Amino acid sequence: MKVYSFEKLECWQQARQLAVWTYQVTKTFPAEEKFGMISQMRRAAVSIASNLAEGSSRKTEKIKIISVLWHIAAQ
Fold first, then answer.
1. How far is Cα 1 from Cα 14, in angstroms, rounded to an integer?
2. Considering the entire predicted model, what is its pTM?
3. Residue 52 to residue 62: CA distance in whole angstroms
4. What confidence tier does 10 reach under pLDDT thresholds 50, 70, 90?
5. How distant, in Å, are the alpha carbons of 6, 8, 39, 48 from that of 3?
6. Domain boundaries, the chain
7. Could you give the CA distance from residue 55 to residue 47 in angstroms, rounded to a whole number?
């Protein structure tokens, strides 16, 4: 299996672990939160890893991307 350059980044690996952890934790949430809090938390967690992967190909905007991802995670 091919390993892409972003998969070697420690921050991407941690973001992926955060997404896995978020899915595990949100399974324990009440069913009425399925389309509210659960959905929002899962999308945000996956977004961090996705944005890191996308941003890893851009050489000039890395600082800006890291700053944006930090703000996303803070939400």
1. 20
2. 0.70
3. 9
4. confident
5. 8, 8, 29, 19
6. 32-75
7. 12
User: Tell me: the pLDDT tens digits for 17-30?
Assistant: 999 999 999 999 98
In angstroms, the Cα distances linking 53 to 10, 26, 27, 44, 49 are 12, 24, 26, 15, 6
Q: How confident is the model at residue 41 (pLDDT cuts 50, 70, 90)?
A: very high
Q: What is the pLDDT of residue 5?
A: 81
Q: Where are the alpha helices (DSSP H) in the chain?
A: 10-26, 39-55, 62-74
Give the integer Cα–Cα distance in Å for 23 and 70: 20
